[in-house]
Design brief:
This protein is mostly helical and 313 residues long. It has 14 helices and 2 strands. It has a two-stranded antiparallel sheet with strand order 1-2. Helix 3 packs parallel to helix 7, helix 8 packs antiparallel against helix 9 and helix 12 runs antiparallel to helix 13. The two termini are 43 Å apart.
Amino acid sequence: MTTTALRVPEATAPPETDRAAAEDRLGRLLVLPAVVVMLLVTAWPMLRALYLSLFRYRLTTPDDRAFVFLDNYGTVLRDPLFWQVTWNTVLIMVVTVAVELVIGFAFALVMHRIIFGRGVIRTSILIPYGIITVVSAFAWQFTFSINNGWVNSWFDWLPGIDANTNWFGDHWHAMFAIMVAEIWKTTPFMSLLLLAGLSQISEDMVEAAQVDGATWWQRLRKVILPNMKAAIMVAVLFRALDAFRIFDNIFVMTRGAQNTESSSFLTYRQVIEQMQLGLGSALSVLLFLTVLLLAWLIVKAFGVDLAQARGES
């Protein structure tokens, strides 16, 4: 007696219709001009930086230019300063993005749920993001000033803070001031992205979970956050890449003093102040590759299929 195993037919994707194919072609044509402009604007500087990174080239001694292949990269990677600066950058990125994610999500919940005065509240929350970064950095530098700032007088009741606390006198105090300025400036951007994710969640699912007796915390963990995974990934990705390239706050508030340099600031010092085009270009190429690696790691860590999240598959 023989038995035959039942075969479950494999799910196949529905055939693409003529209308969908036409819309796809139209979308590609509409995006093409922007892609061409972006390539023209970004490709040449990137290729030029890659080319210059292969030379020993300093503007003060242009006749001493020589092809050294990968020696500039070896010099950078062997320098302890490069790794210390990278650690500063990673620390700023991790701390600021984590704090912004928590505060931004709280703001997004408020903006999503509130009924009365919604426009005023949303506008007031987004005000810091509309301020130029250099202006906000100068404001926070004044805020933390030991002579004129109000932080010491307002928070002298906290341990470790008194009238003589010099926020720019040592590494950790200066790093804290820089991260506070960064969090204050960019949290509204995070909340705006998370608000877009909240608006995509079906209220029927949330109400059904509430009817089933789920608490607010259970609804948050089981319904809201899983359905916001794609929005959270996009928010974290955008802010992490932006935070890794931090420059303005450091340039204005400390100028890299107290060992507060970031990767972008170190590149600026090599190219603009010391006129080392070879080493500076190598640093910029390494920064670009690090940003690409960081983006890949974040996307892999979240494991979100954006096409599926949009309902395309």
